[in-house]
Amino acid sequence: MKPHSLTHFVLELRGLVFYSASWTFMAMIVGALSGSASAFFLWALDQCTNTRLAHPWLLALLPLAGAAVAWIYLKYGSSVEAGNNLLIDEIHDPQKMIPLRMAPFVLGGTLVSHLVGASVGREGTAVQMGGALADQLTRLFKLTPENRRILLMSGLSAGFASIFGVPLAGALFGLEVLAIGRLRYEALFPCLIAAVAADQVCLAWGAHHTHYVAGVIPALTVWTMAATLIAGALFGLAGMAFARSTHALTALLKQIFPYSPLRALGGGAVFALVMWVTHAERYLGLGVPVIVEAFQHPVLPWDFLAKGAATVWSLASGFKGGEVTPLFYVGATLGNVIAPLLHMPIGLFAALGLVAVFAGAANTPIASAVMAVELFGGEIGVYAAGACVMAWLFSGNTGIYKAQRPGEGKWRRHHTIAEGK
């Protein structure tokens, strides 16, 4: 090796050591903060859900609770109202620090939503807490705008990983969610460290995640793969319908009720009345028991439609939480319905629906397929990849995150070889 080559190698090695050591340190801090926040959130969420189940009359307070949270956001939290979209926008175009108040605001708002029975999720809360806590390190370490982007992506990964117990999927989520059809590899190492650390810290605090069982995975054949691709397309259309309905109804309710507390009051009153009249308790809150049920035996054929409608209405009315767990519900129950029609196992298609509808709605097929492997084991890998990619293709160029940028696209119309182009 020539002297100048050796010098270059030593300098490059020293740079890599410094890079990996510094980002390991910062990412572990992000993971510790986010994992601790998620552990507390999961515990508090269980308390709120159990309290609501023990006192069904709390549903009557849903309109007032929603109006109160909306008023607090309007008065004191307008700078963090955009939630996940604010984080994504800041990663694309850094402007100013994420206010720390985002974490307690979204935590409190989500817990109130679940206490009174709104049909919302939990991923948005964990991701926003992770991002807001991570960004507080920007000033401490005097990070450049580019390094701040990486730090925020690490916060997104840490929040997602710790709330669902999927560190690998969490790491990929932070890279994949920013743009449709593009991964941000420059943040791969920090996102991985932050996601793994957050998951381990969350578990160390005693947090528990729901365990889903897909059952026996059949051997791969031409038909089982074809059935999976057909189902994947349907899952993608369901994800697209969910995302577009949420955006459209949100815009409509904002026109009808420009004042957000009144929007939450009116929307909450309609939601509570419909749920009470129809005795539709299975569509309140996260709906985890119904998701578990979808893996075991046939569920009501309209469960996926009802849960989707309940969540779209709750989110459009302004209730805080997220979309992912309700999307799990929609996907698992839709897979449960599709499975017998395609002569496939219910457990397998519930599992595929759980990840694939989310893949389509969030435009994150790789993270979703990896999540399936983490949740259900390696045998489901090929099926999960097929379902998630098809769902992504058929979900259109919009998603649940409006700040998501167009990347390389999902497919292109090519001229034929015969045309010589």
Main pleated-sheet profile: 2 strands, parallel
Strand/helix succession: HHHHHHHHEHHHHHHHHHE
Mind telling me which CATH architecture of the largest domain this is? Orthogonal Bundle
Number of extended strands: 2
Task: Kindly report the average pLDDT value.
Answer: 93
Radius of gyration: 22 Å
**N→C terminal distance:** 47 Å
Relevant CATH superfamily of the largest domain: Clc chloride channel
Q: What is the name of the CATH class of the largest domain?
A: Mainly Alpha
CATH topology of the largest domain: Clc chloride channel
Shape: globular
Category by helix and strand content: mainly alpha
The level of helicity is 55-70%
Overall number of domains: 2
Question: Mind sketching the topology for me?
Answer:
Elements: H1 3-54, H2 62-76, H3 84-92, H4 102-116, H5 123-135, H6 137-141, H7 145-164, H8 167-176, E1 179-180, H9 188-204, H10 222-256, H11 260-278, H12 288-294, H13 303-317, H14 324-341, H15 346-362, H16 365-376, H17 381-394, E2 405-406
Parallel strand pairs: 1-2
Textual characterization of the structure:
- The chain is built from 17 helices and two strands.
- The protein has 421 residues and is mostly helical.
- The chain folds into two domains: 198 residues, Orthogonal Bundle (Clc chloride channel), CATH 1.10.3080.10; 185 residues, Clc chloride channel, CATH 1.10.3080.10.
- The longest helix has 52 residues.
- It is globular.
- The C terminus is likely disordered.
- One of its GO terms (molecular function) is chloride transmembrane transporter activity.
- It is found in: Membrane.
